[in-house]
Amino acid sequence: MAAEPGAMILLERHGDGAEVALVTLNRPRARNALCDLLMTQLADTLDQLETDDRVRVVVITGQPGVFAAGADIKEMLPKEFPAVVQPPFLQHWDRLSRCQKPVIAAVNGYALGGGCELAMMCDVIYASDEAVFGQPEITLGTIPGAGGTQRLCRTVGRPLAMEMCLTGRKLTAAEALQAGLVGRVIPAEKLLEEALKTASRIAAMSPIATVLCKKAVNAAHQTSLSAGLQYERDLFYATFATEDRRTGMDAFIQKQAPVFTGK
Ligand code: HXC
């Protein structure tokens, strides 16, 4: 594990070719409150992983019992409007949502406020049976600021998103699953193992198809249906410019497992 003294982000590599990066939020005494230093270290880590060709998939997780308790309230308390409305405040908060490589959130406890928003920036969310999701900003006299009103609405629908944001009511893992906020609920002791297994599975796919697939699915939240369908079709055509597309189809016909090369 690559841990600098005081590192708020821990980085491990998994897989024979180090194709899965495990990023652990590491500020347990503050319940992984997402202070500026932690978010800067997270952005730097993602920059590093994005340019590392060996890394195909990122898994992000927290500490036992807590994924992240949100933005750092102690850091925010003294700030006034002029300081928050201009950089560097929240400068790094959209870095995770801009990651080109697939990211799996393994949520092992509280994912509140910015913690829930961080999870929603990921492509797949697995929750432990002890996970708790919520947007409690309203109880602090403020509102979500990193996608809580927007991504939550698009994911669980307006009525539940509105209720969560207006009341701060938290969802259990089972409720989050039912609402479509998470993909799977897994016993806490198996959560990381399952997330890493899924990451390895994705890492075995064509890297180009993976990136294009992520772009196409994400477009569904950002554009009209007709524009999204056209975008998907164009990206589908683009896979025919790759060797991996031929490799995959050929392997199917030959009844063999495909070995994708990223060409
Ligand atoms: C700063 C935090 C914190 C936070 C916890 N701590 N959450 N510090 N910011 N978001 C600190 C506590 O002050 C305390 O410090 C220590 O962590 C342990 O916290 P406890 O509350 O004693 O732990 P516990 O009883 O286990 O409860 C865990 C918890 C609770 C349920 C997660 O801490 C909690 O409700 N936290 C706040 C959740 C929240 O409101 N999040 C939204 C933040 S606003 P001391 O010094 O006493 O040991 C937000 C806006 C995002 O996210 C906008 C976009 C960027």
List the helices and strands and how they pair.
Layout lengths: L8 E6 L5 E6 L10 H15 L6 E5 L3 E4 L4 H4 L4 H4 L18 E5 L1 E4 L1 H7 L3 E5 L3 E3 L15 H7 L1 H10 L3 E2 H7 L4 E3 L4 H13 L3 H13 L5 H14 L4 H11 L10
Parallel strand pairs: 2-3, 3-5, 4-6, 5-7, 6-8, 7-10
Antiparallel strand pairs: 1-2, 8-9
Helix pairs in contact: 5-6, 9-10
The chain binds hexanoyl-coenzyme A.
Hexanoyl-coenzyme A binds next to helix 2 and strand 6.
State the main characteristics.
single chain, 263 residues, alpha/beta, 2-enoyl-CoA Hydratase, Chain A, domain 1, Lyase 2-enoyl-coa Hydratase, Chain  A, domain 2, 4-stranded mixed sheet, 40% helix, globular, binds hexanoyl-coenzyme A
Question: Can you give a write-up of this model?
Answer:
The protein is 40% helix and 16% strand. By secondary structure, the chain is α/β, with parallel strands linked by helices. It folds into two domains: 9-203, Alpha-Beta Complex (2-enoyl-CoA Hydratase, Chain A, domain 1); 207-253, Lyase 2-enoyl-coa Hydratase, Chain  A, domain 2, CATH 1.10.12.10. The strands form two sheets. The chain has a six-stranded mixed beta sheet, with helices on both faces. The chain has a four-stranded mixed beta sheet with strand order 4-6-8-9. It is globular. It binds hexanoyl-coenzyme A. Hexanoyl-coenzyme A binds next to helix 2 and strand 6.
